[in-house]
C-alpha cells in the first residue's frame, strides 16, 4: 500500500526533497514587513507595526549561515518518534541565520551531516526530508546541509 | 516610601532524589523559614506558591496546596507559574503585596519533585504548543539549546572545553560545603572531560541534573521587621521580571526560530542582559557594588554567559574571569557560592527562591565555610521559558 507523504506540521514548508524547490514558509505583515516563522496567521507581533496590514504567506530564504550546531547523543523523550528497540542514532541539530530575514531557524541536519562537517558561519541550504515513517504515513520535514560538499568548507 | 522589604526567614529542604511529594519538601522548607524568622504559620497573612507543572493539579495551584499542608488558617493566597522564573514571580508578588500594604508577613514557597532524565513537554497531541513542537519536529531537548550556546561561544570568543569544565570544578567545590546541595563531592576537570557527551560540545558534567527540593522565604515590611526586633534585616531592593523586546534575535527555549529583523532592527541588547539591567536600575546600584551573585548555570557555558549579561565583565570575557579564579570562593566576585545548579540540580519552582536563600545567608554572614567576607550586596539572575526575566537584588 502506498503511504501518504504528510508534512509533520501543515503549512510550514512547500516542495519535496526530489524537486529541488523546497522552501520554508512563513508569513509577512503587509503593514510593517515583519516576517514570522513558525507562521503567524492571526496577528502581527511587531509592537511598532502601524496596524491594518494583512499576513500573507511568504517563502523564506533557501540559504543561510550556521549560527550554531549540536547533536543529540541520547534519545529525546516523546513526542519525538523513534524505535525504542533500535540502537539510538544521534541526529545533528543546526541553527541557521537566514540570509534575507536575519532570523535564526532550527532544523535537523540532512542524513549524513555530522557536527564534524559544520562550522559557525558556514553557508547551508534547506532541503526536504523524512522525519519518521509509520504504518500509514511518511512524515516529511525540513533539513539543512552545507552548500559545499560536507567537509570541504573551512 | 522605602521600596525595601525585609527577608526575615529563609529555609530549604535538601535537594536530592527523595521520591516523595513536592508538598512535603515545600512544607518542610516553609517550617524552616518560619522558625528562622521566629514566627508561627498563623502569623502569616499571605502565602505565595511557585507552581510546578509536573505534579498534577495540586502543583498547578501550589499556593493553596502548601497552605493546606501547613493547616488552613485563612491567609490570602497566590499561585504563580513562570517555569524557571516562578520563584522570582512569587517573590515579586509577595513584595508588591507588602509594599501596597495588603500584607505585612508573606510566606513564599516553591518545591518540585522532578522526574529523571530530559524534561519532556506536557502530554497529548498539541501542535499549537511550541514546547511540544520542538520535541516532535526536532527532538530539541533542553541540553541541545545549552549546547548551541556553548558552541557559539567557542566560535565567537574562543572559549575552550577546559573553561567550561572549570565552572563545574568551581561550583562543585562550593557545593561540597553546602548541606542543602544534592551533590557534595568535589569534581576534577579530568572527571568532566571523561564524562559522556550529551549534546556536542557539552558533557554530562557540564549540564545540570533535575532534582527534588524545596525553598521558602518569610518576607515582611521593614516596619514589621523592626517591631519584631530585627533592626538591620537583609533587604530585597529590586525584583526584575522583565520580558524581551522585539525583535528578539537570540534563540531561546523552547523556540524553533527567533524574530526576523525585516521590520525593525534589534535594540536594547540581549534579553538576559536586560533582566539584570532592570534589577540594577531599580536597586540603584551596579555590578561594581556586588559582593556575590547567584546565576542560573543550567550548563557550565551558560554561567560564563551570565557573567557578561550581569556586567561582571565585557562580552566574550567570561572564560577569562573563571580562569583567573575571580568567581570562585575567595575571588574578587564569587558566583554561585551555593554550588549553583551544578551542585543542586534543577527543582524548577524552588530554584529562584533558593538563590535568594543563599544571598540571605551570605548577607547575614552565616554561610559557614562558603562565607564571602563582609558581603553587602548580591544579585540573583535566571530566565524562565517563553520569555520570563528573573533577577533579585538583596542588600544588607
Automatic annotation (TrEMBL), chain A:
<dbReference type="InterPro" id="IPR012340">
    <property type="entry name" value="NA-bd_OB-fold"/>
</dbReference>
<feature type="domain" description="ChsH2 rubredoxin-like zinc ribbon">
    <location>
        <begin position="22"/>
        <end position="55"/>
    </location>
</feature>
<dbReference type="Pfam" id="PF12172">
    <property type="entry name" value="zf-ChsH2"/>
</dbReference>
<dbReference type="InterPro" id="IPR052513">
    <property type="entry name" value="Thioester_dehydratase-like"/>
</dbReference>
<dbReference type="InterPro" id="IPR022002">
    <property type="entry name" value="ChsH2_Znr"/>
</dbReference>
<protein>
    <submittedName>
        <fullName>Benzoylsuccinyl-CoA thiolase</fullName>
    </submittedName>
</protein>
Amino acid at each position: 500500500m502506498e503511504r501518504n507523504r504528510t508534512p509533520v506540521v501543515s503549512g510550514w514548508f512547500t516542495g519535496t526533497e526530489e524537486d529541488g524547490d523546497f522552501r520554508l514558509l512563513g508569513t509577512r505583515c503587509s503593514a510593517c514587513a515583519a516576517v514570522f516563522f513558525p507562521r503567524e496567521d492571526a496577528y502581527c507581533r511587531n509592537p511598532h507595526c502601524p496596524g491594518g496590514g494583512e499576513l500573507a504567506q511568504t517563502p523564506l530564504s533557501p540559504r543561510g549561515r550556521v549560527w550554531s550546531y549540536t547533536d543529540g547523543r541520547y534519545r529525546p523523550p516523546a513526542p519525538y518518534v523513534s524505535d525504542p528497540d533500535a540502537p539510538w542514532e544521534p541526529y545533528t541539530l543546526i541553527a541557521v541565520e537566514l540570509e534575507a530575514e536575519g532570523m535564526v531557524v532550527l532544523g535537523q541536519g540532512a542524513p549524513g551531516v555530522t557536527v564534524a562537517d559544520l562550522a559557525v558561519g558556514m553557508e547551508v541550504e534547506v532541503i526536504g526530508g523524512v522525519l519518521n515513517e509509520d504504518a500509514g504515513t511518511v512524515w516529511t520535514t525540513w533539513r539543512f546541509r552545507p552548500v559545499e560538499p560536507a567537509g570541504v568548507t573551512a | 516610601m522605602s521600596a525595601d522589604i525585609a527577608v526575615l526567614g529563609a529555609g530549604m529542604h535538601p535537594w536530592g532524589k527523595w521520591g516523595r511529594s513536592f508538598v512535603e519538601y515545600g512544607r518542610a522548607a516553609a517550617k524552616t523559614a518560619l522558625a528562622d524568622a521566629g514566627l508561627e504559620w498563623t502569623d502569616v497573612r499571605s502565602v505565595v506558591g511557585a507552581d510546578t507543572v509536573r505534579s498534577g493539579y495540586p502543583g498547578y495551584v501550589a499556593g493553596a496546596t502548601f497552605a493546606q499542608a501547613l493547616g488552613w488558617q485563612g491567609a490570602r493566597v497566590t499561585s504563580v507559574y513562570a517555569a524557571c522564573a516562578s520563584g522570582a514571580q512569587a517573590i515579586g508578588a509577595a513584595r508588591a503585596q507588602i509594599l501596597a500594604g495588603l500584607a505585612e508577613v508573606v510566606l513564599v514557597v516553591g518545591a518540585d519533585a522532578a522526574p529523571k532524565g530530559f524534561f519532556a513537554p506536557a502530554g497529548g497531541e498539541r501542535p499549537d504548543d511550541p514546547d511540544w513542537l520542538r520535541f516532535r519536529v526536532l527532538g530539541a531537548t533542553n541540553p541541545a539549546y545549552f549546547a548551541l550556546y556553548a558552541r557559539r561561544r567557542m566560535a565567537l570568543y574562543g572559549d575552550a572545553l577546559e573553561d567550561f569544565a572549570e565552572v563545574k570544578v568551581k561550583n562543585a567545590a562550593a557545593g561540597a560545603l553546602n548541606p542543602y546541595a544534592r551533590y557534595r563531592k568535589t569534581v576534577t576537570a579530568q572527571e568532566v572531560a571523561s564524562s559522556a557527551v550529551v549534546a556536542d560540545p557539552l558533557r554530562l558534567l557540564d549540564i545540570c541534573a533535575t532534582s527534588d527540593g524545596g525553598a521558602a522565604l518569610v518576607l515582611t515590611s521593614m516596619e514589621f521587621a523592626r517591631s519584631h526586633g530585627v533592626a538591620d534585616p537583609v533587604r530585597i531592593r529590586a525584583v526584575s521580571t522583565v520580558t524581551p523586546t522585539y525583535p528578539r534575535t537570540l534563540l531561546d527555549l523552547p523556540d524553533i526560530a527567533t524574530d526576523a529583523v525585516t521590520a525593525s532592527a534589534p535594540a536594547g541588547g540581549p534579553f538576559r542582559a536586560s533582566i539584570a539591567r532592570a534589577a540594577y536600575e531599580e536597586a540603584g546600584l551596579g555590578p561594581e557594588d556586588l559582593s556575590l551573585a547567584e546565576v542560573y548555570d543550567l550548563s557550565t557555558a551558560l554561567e560564563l554567559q551570565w557573567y557578561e549579561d550581569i556586567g561582571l565583565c565585557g562580552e566574550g570575557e567570561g572564560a577569562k574571569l573563571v580562569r583567573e579564579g575571580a568567581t570562585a570562593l575567595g575571588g574578587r566576585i564569587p558566583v554561585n557560592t551555593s554550588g549553583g545548579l551544578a551542585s543542586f540540580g534543577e527543582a524548577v519552582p524552588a530554584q529562584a527562591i533558593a538563590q535568594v536563600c543563599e544571598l540571605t545567608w551570605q548577607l547575614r554572614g552565616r554561610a559557614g565555610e562558603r562565607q564571602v567576607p563582609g558581603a553587602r550586596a548580591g544579585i540573583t539572575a535566571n530566565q524562565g521559558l517563553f520569555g520570563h526575566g528573573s533577577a533579585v537584588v538583596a542588600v544588607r
